[in-house]
Write a structure and sequence with these properties.
By secondary structure, the chain is α/β, with parallel strands linked by helices. The chain is built from 14 helices and nine strands. It folds into two domains: about 1-160, 3-Layer(aba) Sandwich (Rossmann fold), CATH 3.40.50.720; about 170-285, N-(1-d-carboxylethyl)-l-norvaline Dehydrogenase, domain 2 (Orthogonal Bundle), CATH 1.10.1040.10. It has helices at about 10-20, 35-40, 50-55, 65-75, 80-85, 100-110, 125-130, 140-150, 165-195, 200-205, 215-225, 235-250, 255-270, 280-285, and strands at about 1-5, 25-30, 45, 60, 90, 115, 120, 130-135, 155-160. The protein has a six-stranded parallel beta sheet, with helices on both faces. A three-stranded mixed beta sheet has the order 7-8-9. Helix 9 crosses helix 11 (about 215-225) and helix 12 (about 235-250) packs antiparallel against helix 13.
Length: about 290
């Protein structure tokens, strides 16, 4: 299968690498063209623009930062839509607004192609290891067409409903992450303030009801007050904005997510937007007097 791949950021580059390792014929494009070079060394073809990446491809994967970016790479000048053949499949693995997703799917359908929204969870580690969780909205038959490609990038591939449903599932994911990381920060700060052996306590918590991926993989960040990149604060803040917009439209209050959104807005203003999202612990640590603000 020939696959076009547009978007080679922290996640996209690792995901495209997985496709090459699985033997797919991959053509890549990225706005910053230098990011294509490592993929080309692994055997990918390079496209001058998104339209060229789509030309002749049975499937085109998109993973860029935000709703306007998807709009630009798909429908802008020399966008994917300009090169897409009837019958081709666009799989948007970005995290964007559900309403925009439905609009884009309808526009693509007008030219005889189809759309899946398939955002991911698992961070940069999951992208590198091919262990992402992929939440898919769209037609079940289209998912089966895409499954061999998706299986090279993720181990959990779940059909959650019609177009737009994948984005809503991802919104749920980001809301849960917000609450989990806030709770992990508060629990660890309690232990730090008490002066107990926090490393030992983390091991105990991981084996009990409080155990979670966030506790195990991001708890040590909070203890060290060091937040190496897994998923950027500024991108999680964008995702929470999408979730909160959807929640307001549905009449669903999300008080914890709204609080974490405020924390992240402050962290971004202070220059921490490119740290891992577990850096929301900075706020809790500072409020407890462990660090200066």
């Amino acid at each position: 299968m020939r696959v076009g791949f547009v978007g080679l950021g922290t996640m996209g580059a690792a995901m495209a690498t997985r496709l090459l390792a699985a033997g797919f014929d991959v053509t890549v494009h990225n706005r910053t063209r230098a990011r294509e070079e490592p993929l080309a060394e692994l055997g990918a073809a390079r496209a001058a623009d998104p339209a060229e990446a789509a030309r002749g491809a049975e499937m085109v994967v998109v993973i860029v930062s935000d709703t306007p970016d998807v709009d630009q790479v798909v429908f802008g000048p020399d966008g994917i839509a300009a090169g897409l053949a009837p019958g081709a499949l666009v799989v948007d693995m970005s995290t964007i607004a559900p309403d925009a997703t439905r609009t884009y799917a309808a526009r693509i359908a007008e030219q005889g192609a189809t759309w899946l929204d398939a955002p991911v969870s698992g961070g940069s580690e999951g992208a590198k290891n091919g262990t992402l969780s992929i939440m898919v909205g769209g037609d079940a038959a289209d998912l089966e067409r895409a499954r061999p490609v998706l299986s090279a990038m993720g181990t959990t591939i779940t059909h959650v409903g019609p177009v737009g449903s994948g984005q809503l599932a991802k919104a749920m994911n980001q809301v849960v992450i917000a609450g989990t990381y806030a709770a992990v920060a508060e629990g660890i700060v309690l232990g730090l303030k008490a002066g107990i052996d926090v490393e030992a306590a983390l091991a105990a918590l991981a084996g009990g009801a409080a155990g979670s991926w966030g506790l195990v993989h991001r708890g040590p960040n909070v203890v060290r007050n060091d937040y190496p990149l897994g998923f950027r604060v500024r991108l999680h803040r964008k995702d929470l904005g999408i979730a909160l917009d959807a929640a307001r439209a549905l009449g669903a209050p999300l008080p914890v997510a709204a609080l974490v959104e405020q924390w992240e807005t402050g962290l971004i203003a202070r220059g921490h937007g490119d740290e891992d999202v577990s850096a929301i612990a900075r706020v809790v640590r500072e409020q407890a007097g462990l660090d200066d603000d």
